[in-house]
Amino acid sequence: MRRLRQGASWLLVAFVAAAASTARADGDPARGEQRFADCVACHSTERDVNGVGPTLYGVFERKAGELSDFRYSPALRRSGITWTAQALDNFIADPQKLVPANRMPYGGMPDADDRADLIAYLQKASK
Amino acid sequence: MATKLKEVDAVIVGLGWTGGILAKELAAAGLKVVALERGAMRSTDKDFALPNVRDELRYVVRHELMQNTARDTLTVRNNPSQEALPMRRLGSFLPGEVVGGSAVHWSGHTWRWTDMEFKVRSLYEERYGKNFIPEDMTIRDWGITYAELEPYYDRFEYTAAISGKAGNIQGQIQPGGNPFEAPRARDYPLPPLTPILAAEMFTEAAKNNGYHPFPRPSANASRAYTNPDGAKFGPCVYCGYCQRFGCEANAKGSPHIAVIPIAMRNPNFELRTDSWVTKVLKDSDGKRVTGVTYTNVLNGEEFEQPAGMVLLCAYAINNVHLMLLSGIGQPYDPVAQTGVIGKNYCYQTGAGATLFFEGRHFNPFMNAGGSNATIDDFNINWDFDRGPHGFVGGYNMSGGFNTVLPIGYRPVPRGTPQWGKEWKAATAKWYQTAMNIGASGSVMANRYNYYDLDPTYRNAFGQPLMRMTFDYKENEHKLGRHAAQNINAIAKSMNPTRLNEATARTDPWTVVPYQSTHNTGGTIMGTNPRDSAVNKYLQSWDCHNLFLIGANVFVHNASYNPTGPVGALAYWTAEAIKNRYVKNPAPLVPA
Question: Which domains, ranges and CATH numbers included, belong to chain B?
Answer without folding.
Answer: 3-69+78-581 (3.50.50.60)
